[in-house]
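Collaborator request, handled under Task 6.
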Amino acid sequence: MHYLNIRTVIQQSMAKKRTVSYEEARERNIEENKKKIEALNLQHLSSAIQKPQAPKTPPLIKHRRPKVDVTVTPTRRSPRLSSLPEASHQRKIQFEQVSHNVMDIPRRTIQVSSDRSYLINRRSISYEARECALRKAEEIESRLDPIFPCFVRSMLHSHVTKGFWFGIPKQFCTSYLPKFDCTVILVDENGDEFDMKYFADRTAFSGGWQGFAVAHKLIDGDACVFQLIKPTTMKVYIIRAIDNGSN
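Structure tokens returned to the collaborator:
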């Protein structure tokens, strides 16, 4: 019995020595690992990975807008448009009163021909002939009743030969014509009437203008006076561009 107790004590002491040696070895390993980590600087590397630095953004640069001169300057009017009467309120009232008093005459419409053979043998019009026709048209305009607004246009290639798109001075449209698309009637000097498709946003005639131009054999260089005798009716005076050498 006494022998067994001694053996048990010896075994316990040996177990304690093994435990102590294990703990000592573990502590030594921990210390060695700490030294290795410090040598490799892994702590700073791990902190850099865990907290990435935000990229630096350049500072915002505020640009100052240059000061704009808002002084209103009077609108310049071209010499040809300067002859247009100002659309004052009183003038509009007078025009509406007179236009309603114009006698309603039964409409005279004619069959529009599509024959444009007159353009084949036509002679080219000189600059002098064009200017002469324009001056005559402006003289006719000056003799017309100022109560009825009017404007003068010299015919161009796009008006009477190809395209047949007739632009109207914007100032005239803004002052006197409707603000929406509608039909405008052109009345020639014989009293014949032609329906035009008026485009308000583009201030021009399109549909119907070709028939008017062909029916009256208008050519590049002719001049026309357009007189507004009713809110959607215009009287047209045609002045031919004729060279001195033409027969």
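The cover message to the collaborator said: "Strands lie at 108-109, 150-154, 166-167, 182-187, 192-199, 204-205, 223-230, 233-239. The helical segments are 2-40, 42-50, 89-101, 127-143, 157-160, 170-176, 209-215. Please let us know whether this matches your experimental observations."
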